[in-house]
Structures are given as C-alpha cells and as structure tokens.
Amino acid sequence: MNSNVKNDYGVNVKEFSAAEKEAEKSVFVYTHKFTLPFTYEDKTYEELIFDWGRLTGEDGLSIENEMQALGKPVIVPTFSGEYLVRMAARACTMPIGDDAIRAMSISDYNKIRSAARSFLLKSEL
C-alpha cells in the first residue's frame, strides 16, 4: 500500500492507523510526568509509568481485602480514592507504595487518581 494514501478527510491512512493503535495502548498505560521532581524516602522520581493492563482480578480482590481490614469497605471502586491509590501503586512499573502516592502534591495525586479512575470507567464499557 502506498504510504501517502489519504482517507476521505485527507488524513494519511497509515498514520491514522498507527495513531489508533497508540490510542488503544494508551488506555492501558499512563505516564505521569512530575512538574517538579518528587522525592520520597531518598528516591527522586521525574516520571512514573502505570500499566493498568497488567492488573488482574486478584489485584482488585486484594485491594478490597486490604481496605476491609482497615475498616473501609469498598462500595464503588471507581469513586474510592483509597481504592484508586492502591490500584495505582500496583500498576506502577517501578516499585512504589500507595503511601508514596499519598505524599505527592495534590496536583500529581489528582492526575494519577484520575488516570486510574478513567481506566476503570473505560474498562466497564
């Protein structure tokens, strides 16, 4: 196929196909870039990668069990900040605990929590 083929809207078909594949992948991966480097327990992070696609049903059940042990039952995981930060810690490709996510600036915390929530919402469709 000619690499310059355009669709009815004048968009390069090959480039559009590559963008679609990247968008599908991005549903499962979120890269968080810190505005300012984040330091926690003598380790500094400039970015963190969260691979939501590597999470399993066992992860979800384990998070629920952790929360129940703390006396915090999970009613709707998608809207539970406690659930979402634990989920993000498990999805992070670097070893990091939910305590580190809690220690981040509210701006970074909110972006990571929102990415986790967005993944759950998309996965429920």
Task: Tell me what you see in this structure.
It is a single chain. The chain has 125 residues and is α+β, with helices and mostly antiparallel strands. It has 5 helices and 2 strands. α3 crosses α5. The relative contact order is 0.14. The model has no long low-confidence stretch (mean pLDDT 88).
What topology emerges from the helices and strands here?
Elements: H1 13-26, E1 29-40, E2 43-51, H2 57-69, H3 81-91, H4 98-103, H5 106-123
Antiparallel strand pairs: 1-2
Helix pairs in contact: 2-3, 3-5
Q: Whole-number radius of gyration?
A: 18 Å
N-end to C-end Cα span = 34 Å
Mean pLDDT: 88
Low-confidence segments: none
Proportion of strand residues? 15-25%
Provide the helix percentage.
Answer: 40-55%
- Taken together, the total number of domains comes to 1
The largest sheet has its strands arranged as 1-2
In DSSP terms, counting alpha (H) and pi (I) runs of 4 or more, how many helices? 5
Please describe the biggest sheet, giving its number of strands, its sense, and whether it closes into a barrel. 2 strands, antiparallel
Structural class: alpha+beta
Task: Give a summary of the structure in a few sentences.
The chain is built from 5 helices and 2 strands. The protein has 125 residues and is an alpha+beta fold. The chain has a two-stranded antiparallel sheet.
